[in-house]
Amino acid sequence: MQISRVVRDLVTTKRVFWLASKSLRVVEDPAGNLDVVVDPIGTKPGDYVITIGYSAARAAAGNPNITTDLTIGGIIDDWSEERWRD
Amino acid sequence: MQISRVVRDLVTTKRVFWLASKSLRVVEDPAGNLDVVVDPIGTKPGDYVITIGYSAARAAAGNPNITTDLTIGGIIDDWSEERWRD
Amino acid sequence: MQISRVVRDLVTTKRVFWLASKSLRVVEDPAGNLDVVVDPIGTKPGDYVITIGYSAARAAAGNPNITTDLTIGGIIDDWSEERWRD
Amino acid sequence: MQISRVVRDLVTTKRVFWLASKSLRVVEDPAGNLDVVVDPIGTKPGDYVITIGYSAARAAAGNPNITTDLTIGGIIDDWSEERWRD
Amino acid sequence: MQISRVVRDLVTTKRVFWLASKSLRVVEDPAGNLDVVVDPIGTKPGDYVITIGYSAARAAAGNPNITTDLTIGGIIDDWSEERWRD
């Protein structure tokens, strides 16, 4: 899994069926790349999270039919900017 | 999922069976790399979209038999060039 | 899917069972990286093709038992060196 | 599989269900990137390990329902800093 | 699939169950990155091989229960250092 930081919500109009009702967030990885994730646990901007990718992302979203390739798996308690950028 | 921008349609002559009837688009990611995606929702050049990769791409295309590894999952309402390139 | 250019055939002696009878090609991606792909449609050196990766590559090869992670999905009609290197 | 070095444990508060009871570690790859892994065998900081990614990570964690995309697969006996950084 | 060169065997003490009896090799890709692979066909250091990744790696290892994400798929007959580094 990757360590990322939640940046903001993402609003989309047209979506494929199985993403329609999901909470989407924009997260930033340590290299500054932006990804879009499904958030099944409720995070807020600034939270450090672990993201689960590939086929495991669907089950992590709570339903294997959810067509995501990246899902938030947990909120990290004790992470810091310094450690993150190491 | 990744954030990309639709560049153009892609025309192919010979295709494997399960891609034969699909709309293919060329999209550009923030780093300027080009990818080919299945578009199940109908996008136009310039749209900012989220792309779904790996095994989830097949279900997102509307049929798990569709042999794609990248599919458009939604159109982003409020994205901007500045934010995209950040 | 990725856009690549067919470079040459690949000859191997020992192979795992499910690749034994497949046509293998070396393809080059826009960054100049070489990959080995299964070619189910019949391409020739110089053709611009789309390649399908991950689990979809097996079905694209015509049989999900074929142990490939990258398969040619189609030949692009109207691609050019300039556009490819963009 | 990748060769990585165990850095530390990872503590998370909220987690998705199938990660709730797992031991998570932060590992560092040869390029210095940090990843979060499930540790089913019991490693300690400084151990050189092999990590198993993608869908195989779930089975390697001991239960295919465990929503991980990276799992420790073994401890390497005879690795060294010099060799690792090659 | 990727083209890599076999570097050496890998010895591990503790391993997850489904890797316990497999031959593991360290391979080097053209960029010099090291990977660990399951070798189902019997290779020796210096051999140029194709490696199969992701979910196909399990079937290529001879048993879908084998928890590998990278497996040697064949030995290349006519590869050369020059061509490899191109």
From TrEMBL, chains A, B, C, D, E:
It comes from the Bacteria. This is Carboxysome peptide B. Signal peptide: none annotated. It holds the Pfam family EutN_CcmL. InterPro entries: CsoS4B, EutN_CcmL, EutN_CcmL_sf. Its main location: other. Keywords: Bacterial microcompartment. CDD domains: EutN_CcmL. It is found in: Bacterial microcompartment.
